[in-house]
Amino acid sequence: MAETWLIVGLGNPGPKYSGNRHNVGHMVLDELAGRIGGSFSSHRSRAMVLEGRLGIGGPRVVLAKPTTYMNESGGPVSGAAKFFGIGPDHVVVVHDELDVPFDAVRLKLGGGEGGHNGLRDITKALGTKDYYRVRVGVGRPPGRMDAADHVLRDFSSAERKDLPFVLSEAADAVEILVREGLLNAQQKHHPAKA
């Protein structure tokens, strides 16, 4: 039987945060839910969860959006992983990334958290840094703006025009990662070095 993947989209709960850069993980999971053709329901792991397959005959996935605040994402992620019997090597976390320009998507396995409190809490809860990350670029804050203020702001009107394409690309990256592996996903979504 094919392994099940846990795909987690990070964000903060509630309508006041829904358009924030920090919630881009939730937005990507909504895009994936649309592709699966299902809707999220409450789960005891403190996450909204949707089970399904990515594409006909595709891998079985559990999409999870923690209902806790970003810096408390670890409990819901480890809770869902335990509940569905999924090891860290089959966990994919979709999150906002300051060090990637807006409209770019990068993938990696493991590594540091780069000051991202959601990732830090997940690493602590899973007991390892070795889980996959789909990093959706939100760019650096302008001028001297604090990074926290930047990620808790909504996307600009110019960015919102391109956001559907970015979300679609990030969802594609998740699909390729779970179907074909990290290397293939990186080759499709990372620009070639000149």
Automatic annotation (TrEMBL):
Keywords: Cytoplasm, Hydrolase, RNA-binding, tRNA-binding. This is Peptidyl-tRNA hydrolase. Belongs to the PTH family. Its EC number is 3.1.1.29. It comes from Sinomonas terricola. The record marks 96 as: Stabilizes the basic form of H active site to accept a proton. The gene is pth. It catalyses: an N-acyl-L-alpha-aminoacyl-tRNA + H2O = an N-acyl-L-amino acid + a tRNA + H(+). Transmembrane segments: none annotated. Catalyzes the release of premature peptidyl moieties from peptidyl-tRNA molecules trapped in stalled 50S ribosomal subunits, and thus maintains levels of free tRNAs and 50S ribosomes.
